Amino acid sequence: MPKKKTGQRKKAEKQKERQKAINNAQYERGLDQRPCNHLMECDYCKRTQKNRAFCYFCNMIQRMPVCAQCGKIKCMSKGGDCAVKHAGQYVTGLGLVGAICDFCEAWVCHSKKCLQTHACTCPMADAVCHECKRGVWDHGGRIFTCSYCSKFLCEDDQFEHQASCQVLESENYKCLSCNKLGQYSCLRCKQCYCDDHVRRKGFKYVKGQPIPCPKCGSETQEVKELSMSTRGYKYGRQQIATGDDDDDEVDDEFSYRGATGGFTFGGYTLGAGGIKAVRVDDDGDDDDDDNEEEDEEDDDEEDDDNDEEEEEGDEEEEINSGDSDKEAEEDKSKKDISEKLQEVKI
């Protein structure tokens, strides 16, 4: 029979496990708890940004540098761990620093442990935003990781990305390899897998641990535990104009015009059995309004001139018609007089 564990042995094993967890805690911390990703306010321009050796906005060196590995501001070590010896003195400021990290752009203290381990374990070694493709040196904000797909995000795109991250690439929840309903989903490659195809042959799975994705290797989760949605399409509608002249309606080369049986887009009018090119003036709306007003004034003047000419022609016609009527009456009266004279002679 195995020997029974004594209380002192149990206590020693628990302490050993606790020390192991403390040593591994620095590798399991999130980006928000890393000193190289802490918030920093510049001493000169007073702008908030990520912990940096030089201000992103004014390029000034900070008065109290913070180590990107251990997070300390003052070195109080009296042992032999310091690369720069300062026996019996506490060091702050530039006397604390030993290097600048090429990945996170932050100071690293002169401790030998920090100088040897930070460059290999820096969490921002490949921190490029998934949305805007910017690195740490290209923007002044902090770096985050998406809680669904675990990809790096900058401070400008983190909320927009996470709001649209739980969307599958397919149009349904079916397995990628068969037609069965997928029970597991990978939020990194945005695919669903059934219970048969999520497991690979020849791969040993740990009991109680999440099943890794067969495509990318990240952890999968059950679909029922997530608020997943599928890819959808949204189509725009053609708006039929009613003919009312409302001030709120915008009429430009990108608006739909349904009153004429078609619509205009990109400088061309589509519909009514053909395509017509629409001339678009790029000088501005003010020039268009001025040209329209001038054209309207010219049209009004031409209409007035035409109306006057028509009135003059009508008056001349009336005068000519009156003269012809008088001549006809005189000729008739002369004929009547001549006929009476002939009767009298007879």
From TrEMBL:
The keyword Zinc-finger applies. Keywords: Metal-binding, Nucleus, Repeat, Zinc, Zinc-finger. It is found in: Nucleus, Nucleolus. The keyword Nuclease does not apply. Coiled coil: none annotated. Residues 282-322 have a biased composition (Acidic residues). This is Zinc finger protein 330 homolog. It comes from Biomphalaria glabrata (Bloodfluke planorb). The gene is LOC106069252.
